[in-house]
Amino acid sequence: MKKNKNKLQPVAQQSVRLRLTLIVTGFIFIFGIIFFLYSNLGAPKSSKGNTKKINLDQLLGRATVIRSSSIIALEEKACLQWETSTEKNNDHFLIERSWDGLEYEILGKVKGYGTSLVVHHYKFIDDIPHLGTSLYRLTQYSSDGEAQIFSTHEFIYKLSNVEMKLLQMGPVPFIDELSVLMQFPTNTQLRVELFTIDGKKIWETLQEVSAGRESFRLMPDVRASGIYHMRLSNTLGQNLLVKLIKR
Hints:
Blueprint: H1 2-41, H2 56-60, E1 65-74, E2 77-98, E3 104-116, E4 120-126, E5 132-142, E6 147-149, E7 153-157, E8 165-170, E9 178-184, E10 188-196, E11 201-209, E12 212-218, E13 226-233, E14 239-246
């Protein structure tokens, strides 16, 4: 019986070694498959075999994207507003205005956010819109000088009333020159008179103005510093009285 038992031991050992070999071979085979799948289907490789970083050009496409844009009336001003969903090398936006859609004048520009995946909101206000219908155009310029022209927006400006209005006048106090912004119901001739504090007229001028908002400059011929009164009157009999300080 002992001799038979000794003959069976080498067979059992060979069986155990075979199983271990199969198990190790199986692990190596599975590891090889995983490595193969990761190498070919996992993270993208460059031509040099290094893992690529996230490419923003692929995410952003080729240009800045305007998600929405509109133009509204805001206290008798034209307010152009827009928002971007993505931006690529966005240096600035240029805002232009036209009477006929052929010739455009530059109103101003708004700085962009460069390259971004975040929604950004923009706004530009035209303080002196043309009376009637105007077209506003938005153009985006990248940092390398490339431009995208977006669709135009039509804006209709109508006078809210028939009164003559003084919207801005300055500086205060003034030295030699005054900048004036007014609104007129019709084309008219504006008479401008300057009086001393005791009512003596010392200067007068006439100014041809058009209906709507009109900006112009005045250079009152007065040297003495002090407080003065200016009267603005039109051919419709409308008058405005303004107190000025000469430095």
